[in-house]
Amino acid sequence: MSDAPKSAELFERAQRVTPGGVNSPVRAFRAVGGTPRFMVSGSGPYLVDADGRQYVDLVSSWGPMILGHAHPAVVAAVQAAAAGGLSFGTPTLGEIELAELIIARVDAPSLQQVRLVNSGTEATMSAIRLARGVTGRHRVVKFAGCYHGHVDALLAAAGSGVATFAHPDSEGVTGAQTAETIVLPYNDLAAVEECFAAYGAEIACVITEAAAGNMGAVAPLAGFNAGLREVTYKHGALLIMDEVMTGFRVSAAGWYGLDPVEADLFTFGKVMSGGLPAAAFGGRADVMGQLSPAGPVYQAGTLSGNPVAVAAGLASLRAADASVYAALDANAHTVGRLLGAALDEAGVAHQVQYAGSLFSVFFADAPVTDFAGAQACATWRYKPFFHAMLDAGVYLPPSAFEAWFVNAAMDDGALARIADALPGAARAAAA
Ligand code: PLP
User: Fold this and answer.
1) Residue 317: its pLDDT value, please?
2) What's this model's pTM, rounded to 2 decimal places?
3) Which structural domain range is residue 401 located in?
4) Which residues carry this modification: N6-(pyridoxal phosphate)lysine (predicted)?
5) Quick check: 241 and 252 in contact, CB under 8 A?
6) Which of 6, 234, 242, 255 sits in a 20 to 30 Å window from 63, CA-based?
7) Domain closes at, from 259, 288, 319
8) Would you say the ipTM is above 0.95?
9) What is the DSSP letter of 402?
10) Residue 282, class by beta-carbon neighbours within 10 Å (0-12 exposed, 13-18 middle, 19+ buried)?
11) Of 170, 171, 325, which Cα lies nearest the Cα of 247?
């Protein structure tokens, strides 16, 4: 591990005034050890830290930066919007345009209206409230290993058994708050059917990541999402497709563009706001029409639809043309191929798994299809692997359970840096 004196100094200072020194836990490097890098700037595929070291960025701000950092069109749009006023607390034209663009790009018959919020967490929280309001039912089904933000009722993973009433994952979340959450194994349609056979009349909704990216990249098995659609429809429950991570990243229309399953509600975030805080949820007009002020389900936000965030989102989506998606796919597969070859050469058992252009590596002999499989991997190999890459100037997610996020700005130089770094990192993982 190379030292990073300026980052270390800043981390010490941060820990005095911020819990754990960070504003979101995974940034703290707890899973890999060492000093989290404090970044000072980003440009294209690169980040520069406080010690002046440059990294090829394979985190892309946890997904949003598909165009790379400081994309000129997005920066110009943000500057222009900011110059015109930062927030009005009134409706604005940009909000209509962003809603129209989201609806047009996904182009799903069931996505007719969207509401803008400030984070993916707000989007999923609001979608669940709406599902409960619309159905008059209380239970929510989620899948182990799927993350939907830090919504109290969703901070729960499975215990044993098929249909497990969830136990909270976090102190401060009460048993009552998760008691109505049922956690099932991902990719297990039989478990979903069994659960609905027992509790179908009480289930308001099933929420699933359109493709799981929060236990590493685990795509839904063929027919899984469609099966969820069928079961929920049969029992009068809503299906919430969480596209916060996949939306506008894995294709112009998100996961829906690859696997067009009609959800009742979709949630979006990350790419659609170009790196500023905004997110959205949407669905059929009759469902969305139940939201206040049109309907009885309350939902609101002082900064929702903020003009600067909306401008960033519009500029990002407008710049993300077919060539951007071709580059994301090509870069993901190039890095994945290099990664697999380096691990083969070092004799490390592994699976490079894709969900569209999201991908990650599992240190396992067989493909991973659920959270139990992800947890059973030799995750201890990731720590030395991560640090070897970091030392060689490649910034990976500081946790074995996160997807890798390429961007379209990665050029030959960035890819060459990754190619040069991988053999040493693979040897470190083998040790
Ligand atoms: N849903 C999914 C699938 C996510 O990956 C995330 C965050 O990573 C969220 C929801 C929560 O979004 P946010 O961090 O903006 O609250």
Assistant:
1) 98
2) 0.97
3) 5-67+321-430
4) 270
5) no
6) 6
7) 319
8) yes
9) S
10) buried
11) 325
